[in-house]
Amino acid sequence: MPTRVVDYLVQAVSDMGVRHIFGVDGANIEDLYDAAYDASDRITAVVAKHEFAAATMADGYARTTAGLGVVCATSGGGAMNLVAGLAESHASRIPVLALVGQAPTDLEGKGAFQDSSGRAGTFDAAELFDTISLYCARVETPASLPAHLSRAVAAARAGGPAVLLLPKDIQQAELVAGRFVAPRPVHGRDDAGIERLLEGLRAARAVGKVVIIAGAQVARDDARDQLRDLAAVLDAGVGVAPDAKDVYDCTEHGFLGVAGSMGHTELADALRGSALCLLVGTRMPVTARAGLEAVLGASTASVGGEPPYVSAVHATSTDLATTLRELTSELKSGAGRGIPVVRAGRRIHYRCRPRTDRACGIAISSKHSTAHCIPIPMSSPTRAIPAHRWCITSAHRATAASSSPSAWAAWATLSAPPSAPVSPAGTATTVASGAPWSWPATAPSTCTAWRFTPRSSTGCR
């Protein structure tokens, strides 16, 4: 059954879950408002005082609903007024669909009211919007609308504005087409990078505090709940980028405040004592990283749609809700479990975080490791201990526990280490093939912990 193009558009955005559209009425967009009025039981057309305001309303709608923002404007000056708002959506990767009216096709270049076709000396709306949108197309025929709309929605959902230019006569024309089916989101994911990130989170959780800085992609991907769950399983402190103040409730456990030039000192203090800083859905622009550059160093990891501006080990994910959920699940299920290692054709299980003397003795094969006696400054134990490879001697476990109980809670007390000579502090000894682990009866005063460095592929990953 034929339907007007404008009715098709309103039905399509309504079917995608959009409940409000924003704009300013005008001669070359009034038909769309007419269609929205007819569908007022499903969608509300909000009339703004200025198109810039309408564009920012659509931007805000997309940010708060994790859906698609829709803005409507007429041609000429109305279209020009959208530029600043859409440019912000482009810079912030916000999905906004702009429906922009144009003069009737038979009057283009012939003195039409608010002509922006680029003909006969008029400005070209397509060129104007092309630089601030991920997709911009002029709908030349009613039959071409479904394809253009599908491409525009797909582009906007990838993170940014999309623009459809709609001549008035095309809006009024009839279209025979089935119900619009929005394209399925296409998500990018770096599986290897996410696996490395998981390993890093496990390691950091074992030796110290994880601090998360969350950004606006958490809101765009509707991943607030998943962020909270990840923070809980890591017992992490959480700060937020200036443009993401709504992604983590300030009353939640572990909230550290806002990052950046007008941020909170608690976040910087927490980063200085952390084992790992995890950036979630933020690129850390200057406004977010100001004052933190000195503490955002080698121990920074990132997950999100784009790599951050700071140095970090990055894992790509354009679907943070799913990725954070999977990380949380793996961290829950993997707590305290052995990591399988293949050696010489057989599978061996050992624990990277031993909880008993015996477990420490079998944690790393004596045939394939080197023991180092490493002095660790008690003033900053979590920064001094690399992940995975430590067994703490009983003589120094008590000292460490008294100065920083939380940092050492995961490590075993070695109550009765066997007595045997081990090389002095600062040197290394290769344990002979087949020999048992050897410990000094009394740890040297300069030695705080023994570090076991795996040889070949036999150690903790």
UniProtKB/TrEMBL annotation:
<protein>
    <recommendedName>
        <fullName>acetolactate synthase</fullName>
        <ecNumber>2.2.1.6</ecNumber>
    </recommendedName>
</protein>
<dbReference type="GO" id="GO:0009097">
    <property type="term" value="P:isoleucine biosynthetic process"/>
</dbReference>
<dbReference type="InterPro" id="IPR012001">
    <property type="entry name" value="Thiamin_PyroP_enz_TPP-bd_dom"/>
</dbReference>
<keyword id="KW-0808">Transferase</keyword>
<dbReference type="GO" id="GO:0009099">
    <property type="term" value="P:L-valine biosynthetic process"/>
</dbReference>
<keyword id="KW-0028">Amino-acid biosynthesis</keyword>
<comment type="similarity">
    <text>Belongs to the TPP enzyme family.</text>
</comment>
<dbReference type="InterPro" id="IPR045229">
    <property type="entry name" value="TPP_enz"/>
</dbReference>
<dbReference type="InterPro" id="IPR029035">
    <property type="entry name" value="DHS-like_NAD/FAD-binding_dom"/>
</dbReference>
<comment type="pathway">
    <text>Amino-acid biosynthesis; L-valine biosynthesis; L-valine from pyruvate: step 1/4.</text>
</comment>
<keyword id="KW-0100">Branched-chain amino acid biosynthesis</keyword>
<dbReference type="GO" id="GO:0030976">
    <property type="term" value="F:thiamine pyrophosphate binding"/>
</dbReference>
<feature type="domain" description="Thiamine pyrophosphate enzyme central">
    <location>
        <begin position="195"/>
        <end position="291"/>
    </location>
</feature>
<dbReference type="Pfam" id="PF02776">
    <property type="entry name" value="TPP_enzyme_N"/>
</dbReference>
<comment type="pathway">
    <text>Amino-acid biosynthesis; L-isoleucine biosynthesis; L-isoleucine from 2-oxobutanoate: step 1/4.</text>
</comment>
<dbReference type="GO" id="GO:0050660">
    <property type="term" value="F:flavin adenine dinucleotide binding"/>
</dbReference>
<dbReference type="InterPro" id="IPR012000">
    <property type="entry name" value="Thiamin_PyroP_enz_cen_dom"/>
</dbReference>
<dbReference type="GO" id="GO:0003984">
    <property type="term" value="F:acetolactate synthase activity"/>
</dbReference>
<dbReference type="Pfam" id="PF00205">
    <property type="entry name" value="TPP_enzyme_M"/>
</dbReference>
<dbReference type="InterPro" id="IPR029061">
    <property type="entry name" value="THDP-binding"/>
</dbReference>
<dbReference type="GO" id="GO:0005948">
    <property type="term" value="C:acetolactate synthase complex"/>
</dbReference>
<dbReference type="GO" id="GO:0000287">
    <property type="term" value="F:magnesium ion binding"/>
</dbReference>
<feature type="domain" description="Thiamine pyrophosphate enzyme N-terminal TPP-binding">
    <location>
        <begin position="4"/>
        <end position="115"/>
    </location>
</feature>
